[in-house]
Write a structure and sequence with these properties.
This protein has 399 residues and is mostly helical. Helices cover 75% and strands 0% of the residues. Helix 12 (279-286) packs antiparallel against helix 13. The protein is globular and about 60 Å long. It starts with 6 loop residues before the first helix and ends in a 5-residue tail after the last helix. The mean pLDDT is 86.
Length: 399
C-alpha cells in the first residue's frame, strides 16, 4: 500500500529532477529510470517499462504521467500531487519569469549552456537505452521487436509512429513472447479502486464535452481559457512538442498571443528543465486578453495537465488486473521491447542529431556517459558537468 507520510520524500526527489531534468520527455524517462529504478529501487525494470508503455498509449504528457504514477505508487494521491507539483513548478516559474522579462539567454555563453544541456539528453537517453535493453530484450524475439520498432519510428516519425510502433510491438509479443520467460512481478498497489477509475474517466469526458458547451452558452473568459488548454492536453498523443500546433491554433490564431511572443516562449522552454507542457503558463502570462496574467498562467497550467492525469488514474485500476493475464503479459513483453526501440530511435533523432555536431560534443557526451554509467555520479551532477562543458566549448579557445 502507498504510504501518505512518504509524500515529502516524493516531493524532494521530484524537485531535484524538476531543477535538473533537461532534454524533453524521452530524456525525462531516462532520469526517472536512473533515480527510481537504479538508485532508489522504488520499482523494478519491468514495472517501470509497463508504466512507460501505458503512458505512451494515453493522451497527455507521457513523462509527467509516469512521474505522477510513480508518486501515486509511493505515497498515494498526496504522492502523485507532490510528484507533479515538484517536477512542474520550477519550469513553470521560470517561464512566468521569462514572460515578465526576467530571463533571457543570449550570447556565446548562453548558447553554449543550452547546447551543453542538449548533450546531457544524449547521455541520459543512451544510459536508459543501454540499461533497459539488457533487461527487456534478453532474447532474439524481443531484440527483433526493439530493432523493428526503432526503424519504424525513424521511418514514420512523430507521435503517430511512436504509438504505431508500440501497438505493433504488442501484437508481435502476443505471437512471439507467449511463455517467454517468467511473468514480471506484480506492481505495487496504487490504492485506486475501480470506482475511483470510473469517476475519473467520467470526469474526463464531462469536461471534454461540457467545457465547449459552456463557452457556446456565453461563459466568461476564464472558462474559455480552461476549455482551450484542456482540449489541447486531451487531444494530443506524445506530449511535448506535439501539443505546439494545438496551442498555436488556440492562442495565436485567436489573437490571444502574438506569433512573436509564442515563438520566443517556445525557444525559452527549450532551455529549461521539466515538462514542455509548462509552456502553457508562459502563454497565460502573455495573453493580451482580459483573462491574461498570473491567474491565467495557473489556470492554463492546471488545465493542460488535468486530462492526462484523469485518464491515467481512470485506467490504472483496470490495467493492473489486465496485465495479470497470460495474453496481456505476452503483449506487455512486446510493448516493453518496443519502448526500448522507441528510446533508441529518439536517441538518434532528435537527441543525437541535435546535440552532437562534432568531436568535441561527442567527447563531452562520452565523458558524461562514463560518469553516469561507470562512476555512478548522480544525474544532476552530470547535468552540471555537461552544462559547464558546453559553455567552455562555446568560448573562442574551446572552439
Amino acid at each position: 500500500m502507498p504510504h501518505p507520510h512518504r509524500a515529502g520524500e516524493v516531493f524532494r526527489a521530484f524537485l531535484l529532477l524538476g531543477l535538473t531534468a533537461f532534454g524533453g520527455p524521452i530524456a525525462h524517462l531516462g532520469y526517472y529510470r536512473d533515480t527510481f529504478v537504479e538508485r532508489r529501487r522504488w520499482l523494478d525494470e519491468h514495472a517501470y517499462a509497463d508504466l512507460v508503455a501505458l503512458c505512451q498509449f494515453l493522451p497527455g504528457p507521457a513523462s509527467s504521467q509516469v512521474g505522477f504514477a510513480l508518486g501515486l505508487m509511493r505515497a498515494g494521491p498526496l504522492g502523485g500531487l507532490a510528484a507533479w507539483t515538484a517536477f512542474t513548478l520550477p519550469s513553470a516559474l521560470l517561464l512566468m519569469g521569462f514572460a515578465l522579462g526576467a530571463a533571457n539567454l543570449e550570447g556565446p555563453l548562453g548558447q553554449g549552456l543550452i547546447h551543453g544541456l542538449k548533450v546531457v539528453a544524449v547521455v541520459i537517453v543512451a544510459h536508459a537505452v543501454w540499461g533497459m535493453a539488457r533487461h527487456l530484450c534478453p532474447d532474439r524475439a524481443r531484440a527483433t521487436i526493439a530493432v523493428t520498432s526503432a526503424l519504424l519510428v525513424l521511418a514514420v516519425g512523430g507521435s503517430g509512429g511512436q504509438v504505431l510502433a508500440i501497438a505493433l510491438g504488442g501484437l508481435a509479443g502476443l505471437t512471439w513472447c507467449r511463455g517467454n520467460g517468467q511473468a514480471p512481478p506484480s506492481l505495487p498497489d496504487f490504492g485506486l479502486s475501480r470506482r475511483t477509475g470510473f469517476i475519473c474517466l467520467i470526469a474526463f469526458g464531462c469536461l471534454l464535452l461540457g467545457l465547449p458547451l459552456l463557452v457556446l452558452a456565453g461563459a466568461g473568459a476564464g472558462v474559455t481559457l480552461v476549455d482551450a488548454f484542456y482540449r489541447a492536453g486531451a487531444l494530443v498523443f506524445g506530449g511535448g512538442h506535439v501539443v505546439l500546433p494545438l496551442l498555436e491554433a488556440e492562442v495565436v490564431r485567436t489573437g490571444w498571443v502574438s506569433a512573436d511572443d509564442f515563438l520566443a516562449g517556445y525557444g525559452a522552454a527549450q532551455a529549461i528543465p521539466g515538462p514542455l507542457f509548462t509552456f502553457s503558463a508562459y502563454l497565460g502570462m502573455v495573453m493580451t486578453t482580459e483573462a491574461g496574467g498570473l491567474g491565467a498562467a495557473w489556470l492554463a497550467l492546471v488545465a493542460i495537465f488535468a486530462p492526462g492525469m484523469l485518464l491515467l488514474v481512470g485506467v490504472i485500476p483496470f490495467w493492473q488486473t489486465l496485465r495479470e493475464r497470460p495474453g496481456a503479459r505476452a503483449l506487455m513483453r512486446g510493448t516493453n521491447a518496443a519502448v526500448v526501440g522507441l528510446l533508441a530511435a529518439t536517441l538518434y533523432r532528435p537527441v543525437w542529431t541535435g546535440a552532437i555536431l562534432g568531436p568535441a560534443e561527442f567527447g563531452l557526451a562520452l565523458a558524461g556517459f562514463a560518469l553516469l554509467a561507470v562512476w555512478r555520479v548522480p544525474a544532476w551532477a552530470v547535468v552540471v558537468v555537461c552544462a559547464l562543458g558546453g559553455m567552455v566549448l562555446a568560448l573562442p579557445s574551446g572552439g
